[in-house]
Amino acid sequence: MKVHNTLGNGFQEVIYQRCLVIEMEQVNLNFGREIEQKIFYHGREVGTRRADFVVENKVIVELKAVVQLEDVHLAQAKNYVVAYDFPVGLLINFGATSLQFKKVFNPKYHPAPHKPPKS
Predict the structure, then answer these.
(1) For the segment 67-89, what is each residue's pLDDT rounded down to a tens digit?
(2) Closest Cα partner for 74 from 36, 10, 30, 66?
(3) β-pairing verdict for 59-64 and 44-55
(4) Predicted model pTM
(5) How many domains does the chain contain in total?
């Protein structure tokens, strides 16, 4: 929200990405930007995709700078959480007059079973 409140809407997505890098660094969040992930179909690699951010190795963040979020943007964010096998993602749109955001969930996510510590 701080980035949107400071810049407003109307910039390209990459400008908002760069601002979020600054904000996440200031609060010491562990993150990766444009992390490439392989996409598989029936066990065969068919391509790669890059989510805008992977934060704390727990949350996929996908940014947009469009006038209005559409179903295709939501589908893309959902596909990323599945492809990266994360439980949750965040879709943020800086292009609208008011900041838009949606939390997305991975319906296929199954956490690894807890293993007892070795003695």
Answers:
(1) 999 999 999 999 889 888 899 99
(2) 66
(3) antiparallel
(4) 0.84
(5) 1
